[in-house]
Amino acid sequence: xxxxxxxxxxxxxLGVLAGAVQKFRALGASVRMACHFDTRNCLEELDxxxxxxxxxxxxxxxxxxxxxxxxxxxxxxxxxLWLQSRRNPWMRQQGLGAQxxxxxxxxxxxxxxxxxxxxxxxxxxxxxxxxxxxIEGRTDASAPTKxxxxxxxxxxxxxxxxxxxxxxxxxxxxxxARPVMRSAVGARLWRTALNAPGVPPxxxxxxxxxxxxxxRWAGRPGGATxxxxxxxxxxxxxxxxxxLLDEAVWAELKKGIAPRTLDRxxxxxxxxxxxxxxAGDPAxxxxxxxxxxxxGFHRVVHxxxxxxxxxxxxxxxxxxxxxxxxxxxxxEPRGRKVPAAQAPLDRPLRLLITTSANDNFLKLxxxxxxxxxxxxxxYLDLAASPAMKRISWAGRRMLENRxxxxxxxxxxxEQIMRPHLDWADTVFxxxxxxxxxxxxxxxxxxxxxxxxxxxxxxxxxxxxxxxFSRIDDLVYVADHVQDLxxxxxxxLRGEHAPRMHMLHNAMDLSGFDLPKPAEARFxxxxxxxxxxxxxxxWAVEVLERLREHDERYRLLMVGGDMDPKTSRxxxxxxxxxxxxxxxxxxxxAVLRLGxxxxxxxxxxxxGTILSSSVREGCHVGLMExxxxxxxxVVRDWPFFAGRxxxxxxxxxxxxxxxxxxxxxxxxxxxxxxxxxxxxxxKLASEHALAVWDWPRVSRDFDELLLDSD
Length: 709
Known about the structure:
Elements: E1 2-8, H1 14-26, E2 29-35, H2 43-48, E3 53-56, H3 66-73, H4 77-85, H5 89-97, E4 100-103, H6 108-118, E5 123-126, H7 128-137, H8 153-163, H9 169-175, H10 178-182, H11 184-194, H12 201-217, H13 221-232, H14 238-254, H15 262-278, H16 282-296, H17 299-302, H18 309-312, H19 314-322, H20 325-330, E6 349-355, H21 363-370, E7 375-381, H22 386-392, H23 395-402, H24 407-423, E8 426-430, H25 434-439, E9 448-453, E10 473-476, H26 479-488, E11 499-502, E12 523-527, H27 536-547, E13 554-558, H28 568-587, E14 590-594, H29 599-603, E15 608-611, H30 620-627, E16 631-635, H31 647-650, E17 656-657, H32 660-670, H33 674-691, H34 694-706
Parallel strand pairs: 1-2, 1-4, 2-3, 4-5, 6-7, 6-8, 8-9, 9-10, 10-11, 12-13, 12-15, 13-14, 15-16, 16-17
Helix pairs in contact: 4-6, 11-13, 12-13, 13-14, 14-15, 15-16, 16-23, 27-32, 30-33
């Protein structure tokens, strides 16, 4: 595969860049990007580029000492960026390994030129089009010769001398070579060196990064993490210490690993944010706090794993966050000047329904109120324009505003939202994520604010940033989600908390109860396998136990596969899952039916519907399966098992099991005869239609949104 490295010293047009990345991929290239600009406001856009990797690199001089700052001001911008990034381990590794170096803007040209002096076999281009032509025109005859793992000693010497002043460059290079780093003796040697007393903090930090780089080259990522954390433990300067811990944590997150030093790193970042806030620097405090919250509630740790401390010990997990002085300022309730007005009696209710890109659970709600005689409806997608999307997802700026800085952010929110707030009597915002934080940045006037929280949001940082004193009603899709969220977010337990409601998702189940053929009795169904949390391996265990009794049992899986690009944790789970089911697919015991627009049609062939998940809000696929007269078998979702609310309180008695063995036993009993199977399926369908069908649930929405009381 051809390796391409983009160098950008200013944020590129990410929409244009997305198309370019796909073109490079079509040519068989992997694409990485060195970002010499502030990426904090565009992290989600960068993730959507589907780069193989990207790295935030130094781009400013604000963190330098007075003397260094004066010197840097005299240096041309491109050369300054090179001086700041040339020792970065990621930059060195990617710059030396790439076959194509691409400058995306004028200031990046100097950085590419200097990299090309080290990586003499790589092609260097200014702009995307020349780089594409270079890849298309390269033939086997012109392919690069084998490159050195390090630059020529003459070029390396100056960098190494500056990095480890008293250590000769040839000793350092030899000591961090792969054979040394792979050996236990070499690892112990470097741990001893990093623990040595009397080493200046900056030198210790630089040395630990050099050792970490050598460990990674040697295929020992755990050793790289240990080098950084060992050095951090010997450094008193919080900024340097936190920087090393942060690097170690992010390296593990990129590999899909729940970091071993995550708690320690988050606490250090919170302490640093407090120091910056107390020193009167809200911008720095917001940046550090944003980093702490992103790490503390990272999807690799909580969403892409089969367990999470956030669910098992929610109050304990959240306690350090809320012990922070800066966080106390962020969550300080600001309330509203006037209470929300009562629903009008002399005209239709003006209802604004809004979300950001994800309207999956709004379609029936929108359809109902579009033609409702007592409602005048408007719909706002906050992702419809780049400007609105930037403002509504600007997490760091939201924090800075709450800490007393960036007053312009609130002005921008006013410009976007005030016309909508002035028009609406009620705003219904779906998903308690960044737009909910944005909306509560400003006083809503007398407009009623209703926010719906599903289950995903409870595992993210966003509810912790919302000013709930400016929300009138908070809607949950299940009682166990409410319990968890309240345990995590103290704002929801105080006097300023909004009214809370539990409303089932809007689902039209009337078309699901179609006749099933007799052979469906032996088909076990799983609807939705696109997330690690769905844990389809649990369903495979159930199938294997069933087939020990009767090989007529099959597992039918409906829905798209997990996306390995979501995270390394997802990629690793998917690899294990595919290896497990490959022989079962070959034998016909497992059928993957793929995504479909006709779920009722697929459910005709399914006699038992499984919920194998470790967590759910309300499992829509399971509820649809029950409506189709498939017999429901629900795993007692581990994230909520044993708590006051969970799968056992959401579903009827008898549906929920504790283990694959119990699941198999329930299926064998219910499907023992066709009569018993059809009877159990009929009872499940009757329950689903009576409790979860839209004609029933729509009355709850009318009561919430239209009731003048």
